[in-house]
Amino acid sequence: MIKERVITILKSSGIRLPELEERTGISRYTWNNLKNTARKREIKAEEIEAIVKLFPQYALWVVSGEVAPEAGQISPEYDQANSNLPNQNAG
């Protein structure tokens, strides 16, 4: 499940593989292989750590599947749903 959540983050963030490689120090080919769901490879701890450092707001969700918005811990789906809400400060 952690692998699937990391893939969700990568897809929803729109980050491109060269930038991901630059920002994490992990090869773009490694990330591409991870994103390829046809491959049955496990995600490595260093990849999980890299994603959590890059997207700290998703840390809890990556490891547990849970969110705690009051603590700033959300998921990409929560983030998307929240961004679609009308601005509560308008008016």
Keywords, please?
91 residues; mainly alpha; 434 Repressor (Amino-terminal Domain); 6 helices
Structural topology:
Elements: H1 2-13, H2 17-24, H3 28-35, H4 45-54, H5 59-64, H6 76-83
Helix pairs in contact: 2-3
Structure characterization notes:
This protein is mostly helical and 91 residues long. The protein has one domain: lambda repressor-like DNA-binding domains (434 Repressor (Amino-terminal Domain)), CATH 1.10.260.40. It contains 6 helices and no strands. Helix 2 packs across helix 3. The radius of gyration is 14 Å and the shape is globular. The termini are far apart.
Strand runs, count:
0
Task: State the fourth-level CATH superfamily.
Answer: lambda repressor-like DNA-binding domains
Uncertain segments are: none
What's the CATH architecture? Orthogonal Bundle
Order of helices and strands: HHHHHH
- State the end-to-end distance: 42 Å
Shape, principal axes of CA atoms = globular
Total domains, how many? 1
Structural class: mainly alpha
Mean pLDDT metric: 92
The CATH class is Mainly Alpha
Radius of gyration: 14 Å
- The number of helical elements comes to 6
**Portion in helices:** 55-70%
Give the CATH topology: 434 Repressor (Amino-terminal Domain)
Biggest sheet details: none
